[in-house]
Design brief:
By secondary structure, the chain is mostly beta strands. Helix content is about 0%, strand content about 65%. It has no helices and nine strands.
Length: about 130
C-alpha cells in the first residue's frame, strides 16, 4: 500500500495570456517534501496553452531541479499543425527520486521552430508517495 508524502502546485497563469515564446521559459516549479524516504515515487503533471499563427514546434521539459541544465526526467515535442491554439497536458514520473528532505521539480517550454505564443492557462503540480 502506498503512503502519501506531499503534494504541491504551481499556477503560472490561470487565465488567457499572450507571451511570445523566444527562449526556454520556466512555467512551473514545485518543491516536494519526500521526507528522506528511500525510493519515493513522484508523479508530475502540467498543462500549458500554446498558440501559433501558422505552424510551430515546442518542447516541454520537466527537470529534477530548477534549471534546464538539471536532470531531465521528461521531454515532449509538441507540433502545432495549423493556426490557432492548443491546450497541452502531460504526465511524468520520477521513479529515481532521491531520498531527500525536499526535491525541486521544474517545467520548461522551448521554441524549436515557427512562431509560438504562450496563451495560457499554465499549471504544474506534483505528488510524492512512498512504496511502504
Amino acid at each position: 500500500m502506498g503512503r502519501f508524502l506531499d503534494q504541491r502546485s504551481s499556477m503560472n497563469a490561470g487565465t488567457e495570456i499572450a507571451v511570445a515564446l523566444t527562449t526556454p521559459t520556466l512555467f512551473g516549479v514545485v518543491g516536494l517534501q519526500t521526507q528522506a524516504v528511500a525510493g519515493p515515487i513522484v508523479d508530475l503533471s502540467g498543462t500549458i496553452g500554446l498558440g501559433t499563427p501558422a505552424t510551430g514546434t515546442a518542447v516541454i521539459n520537466v527537470v529534477r531541479g530548477t534549471t534546464l541544465t538539471d536532470t531531465i526526467i521528461y521531454t515532449a515535442i509538441i507540433t502545432l499543425e495549423a493556426a490557432g491554439s492548443e491546450l497541452v497536458s502531460f504526465n511524468a514520473q520520477d521513479l529515481l527520486a532521491p531520498a531527500a528532505l525536499q526535491t525541486a521539480y521544474a517545467s520548461f517550454v522551448s521554441l524549436t521552430g515557427g512562431a509560438i505564443t504562450r496563451v495560457g492557462p499554465e499549471a504544474f503540480w506534483g505528488i510524492a508517495s512512498a512504496n511502504s
